[in-house]
Amino acid sequence: MDEMEEELKCPVCGSFYREPIILPCSHNICLACARNILVQTPDAESPQSSRASGSGVSDYDYLDLDKMSLYSEADSGYGSYGGFVSAPTTPCQKSPNGVRVFPPTVPQPQQQHLLPHPGSLTPIPRNSCITCPQCHRSLILDDRGLRGFPKNRVLEGVVDRYQQSKAAALKCQLCEKSPKEATVMCEQCDVFYCDPCRLRCHPPRGPLAKHRLVPPAQGRISRRASPRKISTCTEHELENLSMYCVQCKMPVCYQCLEEGKHGTHEVKALGAMWKLHKGQLSQALNGLSDRATEAKEFLVQLKNMVQHIQENGVEFEACLVAQCDALIDALNRRKAQLLSQVNKEHEHKLKVVRDQISHCTVKLRQTTGLMEYCLEVIKENDPSGFLQISDALIRRVHMTESQWGKGTLTPRMTSDFDLTLDSGPLLQTIHQLDFVQMKVPAAPMLQLEECCTQNNSATLSWKQPPLSTITVEGYILELDDGNGGPFREVYVGTETICTVDGLHFNSTYKSRVKAFNASGVGQYSKTLIMQTSEIAWFTFDPASAHPDIIFSNDNLTVTCNSYDDRVVLGNTAFSRGVHYWEMTVDRYDNHPDPAFGIARSDVLKDVMLGKDDKAWAMYVDNNRSWFMHNNSHTNRTDGGITKGATIGVLLDFTRGILIFLVNDEQQGPVAFEGLEGAYYPAISLNRNVQVTLHTGLPIPDFYTPGEADPTGSVC
């Protein structure tokens, strides 16, 4: 109800509407306020050039803007702020709601042509113009003046009920002494209750449980809803409005239909249109209600953001203080280290100077003593005695003098400290210390519609969240081993799509991705589970084949241009699961010995398959076959091949065995056991043979996983 209050206030006076009238632009204004903002137009303007909405024109018969020059900004008739600015006698004012309004001008008496206005002692000048204070549209009043505008009885009733609901607190109707303030009203009982009386007299059980309890203010409004008033026509005051003109979109009376301009217009019953427009308004309110609900949720989100901003601000401030304190601590530690270095230099200089002072003091004392002794000797008058010691004294004097030679009287240490603190780079760094708009990236979002698996390859695509503005330098894609093991990195780079090849068939992989930048590594995305193909599809691989091999049929058919055996591998390796593929003999001349089987990637390509220790094969002619590995021939079996024959290869990693079939029949016992690692399908042939590969085949019906019996046959 409090939110509705602004809808019930006049944009001019700022108070609740009193006798509101409806302007042609659908805005409302108090009748008294409408009189106050009337402006007289020049006499040259015809009052018939524009009519009020009561005349029934659907487009409100607004003034011809160019002709009347009332709205032209060029001649200052209607300014960009929504009012007349050309008339110096019409100063602009603002209403309590902040809307610009214009009080009436005071024209000269000889220019006034006054019309009496019902209910007013003040006559209204002819050719008066009124401007809507909200949308700033203007029009000239006709002879009826403000009486030509319909009264908004609905708005008047809503204002009256609203003011009554705010008048005083409602009291409980069942309290015997000193009624308490009511807290609810029952719409069915039409009684106001306080909380104790509601619990005692209106318990929520039985038939009363279906009653609707509303707040007292809402109950008061519904209780005091005014009865429906019958409106009269603005042009025919004695006629009630009973029909609705569809073209003019306004209620009309029968006299308007018979005598007025609505006679040729389409009209409908007023009650039917009332119900129709109520339904349309209710339907429009549903959409507006949804927007209001979204706005409330958005406001809650914004309020939560305020709290988060405050919390993050405190946390960030503490982090900043901690970082600056850490810098200050580091600077203080370095200061202590530098001071220690200065103290060491200081002590060293003092020690050197003091040692030199001590040394010079001793030598000076010795020299002074020698000089005094020599002077006393010179005073002696005994020539023979003097000559006995003079040579020795002369030598001592010269030797002592030489000891005071060059450098003896030079300081060994300067008093200056040859240390200069280079603080310029640090000061520059401190001045450049600033915030960097970079945080750890948010978790990427996997684009499920673009993620897929094909054969034993998986393609993953991802992107950053839409609202994320944090710089991303790259991404890290991780997959597990397809058997529930730990994750491992399979891609690091800047791309947002990656295809991982060489996965295990019929395996379930978990994948996830995270972003990183200079600030660190972000959170992982949601984990995506992918299933590789249960059955393998592959072709022969030209890249790894011997140069003499000839390919055709999209690398599914091979032959050779040499009489020597040459090896070709499939383009897919197997290391897990059970796999089966077949090869049909398209050409078989001169009884050659093609070999079929599996091999490592580094198998010899210029000898028969099985000659080295990197291949496990069965070679067969037109009568019999042998198994061969590392040039060891075993298990000769009768039954050969001809043109059109089919050779099948069954590789079972669950049991580590290899089985061969010829024309859908198992050829010999289990060929090889204990197979582990990665193996490629392989074949060796010469120019007398051509075969075609068939993949994506189901496991033969005769084979079921199980233990191998002692005879080597499959059970």
UniProtKB/TrEMBL annotation:
Residues 517-702 form the B30.2/SPRY domain. Gene3D superfamilies: 1.20.5.170, 2.60.120.920, 4.10.830.40, Classic Zinc Finger, Immunoglobulins, Zinc/RING finger domain, C3HC4 (zinc finger). PROSITE patterns: B302_SPRY, COS, FN3, ZF_BBOX, ZF_RING_1. The keyword Cell inner membrane does not apply. Keywords: Cell projection, Coiled coil, Cytoplasm, Cytoplasmic vesicle, Cytoskeleton, Metal-binding, Phosphoprotein, Repeat, Synapse, Transferase, Ubl conjugation, Ubl conjugation pathway, Zinc, Zinc-finger. It is found in: Cell projection, Dendrite; Cytoplasm, Cytoskeleton; Cytoplasmic vesicle, Secretory vesicle, Synaptic vesicle. SMART domains: BBC, BBOX, FN3, RING, SPRY. SUPFAM superfamilies: B-box zinc-binding domain, Concanavalin A-like lectins/glucanases, Fibronectin type III, RING/U-box. Residues 167-216, 228-270 form the B box-type domain. Its EC number is 2.3.2.27. Pathway: Protein modification; protein ubiquitination. It is an enzyme of class 2 (transferase). Interacts with SNAP25. This is E3 ubiquitin-protein ligase TRIM9. It comes from Astatotilapia calliptera. The lineage of its organism: Eukaryota, Metazoa, Chordata, Craniata, Vertebrata. The gene is TRIM9.
